[in-house]
Amino acid sequence: MDRFETTKNAGLLGIIGNLFLLLIKSFAGFAFKSQAMIADSFNSASDIFASLMTFIGNKIASEPQDNSHNFGHGKAEYIFSMLISISMILVSFKLLYDSIYTLIYGSNLTFSWLLVAVCIITIITKFALYLYTRILCKKYDNILLEASKNDHRNDCIVTTFTLISILLTFANIYWFDGIVGLGICLWICLTGVKIFTESYNVLMDISIDSRTQDLILDLAHQYKEIQKLDPISSTPVGYQYVVFLTIYVDGNMTTFESHKLADSLEMDVSGLEKVYKAVVHVNPI
Length: 285
Known about the structure:
- With 285 residues, the chain is an alpha+beta fold.
- The chain has helices spanning 3-31, 35-61, 76-105, 113-139, 143-167, 175-203, 210-221, 255-270; strands spanning 228-229, 233-236, 241-249, 275-284.
- It is elongated.
C-alpha cells in the first residue's frame, strides 16, 4: 500500500469517526447545556472538514505529472492543509465568544452520566485514530497525515478536560466548564496557526532543509572532477523538492564527459528522500 493510498484510508476513517462523535457530542452538549461539550462538538465538526480536505487533497496530490503540471500535483497537500487551518481558526473564534459569554453569565450545565459516557467514547475513539495515524506518519512524510495525527492527539487531551469539567459539577463547580471551553478554542487556534505556517512556507517556495543540503554537498564532493559548486537552489513540489545545482569542472573536459558527470550526480541526488528531481548545470573553469 503506497503513501497516497494509506492517506486516503486515514481520511475516510477520520470522516466516519468524527461524524459519529459529532452526533453524540452535539446531542449530549445541547441536551445538558455543557459549553465544554458543545465546544467539543464544534471541534468534531471541524475535524470532519479536515478529514474531508485530507481525502480530497490527497486524491489530487496523487495525480502524476502531466503537460500542465510538469512536477506533479504534490502542492495540493499544502493547499488543502491551509484550508484546514483556516477552518480551525474560524471555529476557534466562534468558540471563544461562546466560552467568554458562559464565564460572564454563568453555565447552565446539568450533570448526566451520558455526558461522562460520551467523553469516554470520544477519548477511546480518538486515541485509536491517533495510534493509527502515528504509525502512518512514521512511515510517510505527509503534512495531511501529520495534521490528522496531531488533531486526534489534541482531541484526546481536550476531551479529558471536558470530562473533568463535567465531574466537577458534583462539587457544584460550574465555572470550570467555561474555562475548558476557552482552553479548547485556544488549542484549536494554535494548532490551526501551526498548520497554516507550515503550508504557507511550502507554497511560498521555502528552501530544502539544511540536513538534505549537507547530504547533497557530500554527494557532490565525492566527485573529484568538480572543482567548485554554487549555492544550492531548490523549490518544493509537495513534500519533495526540485534541486538545481551548478558545478564547475576543468575547461579541458569534453562535453560528453562533463554531461556524463552531471547525469551521474543528478541520479545520486534524485535518490535522496526529499528530492523529487535534480537538475545539474555544468560550467567550465
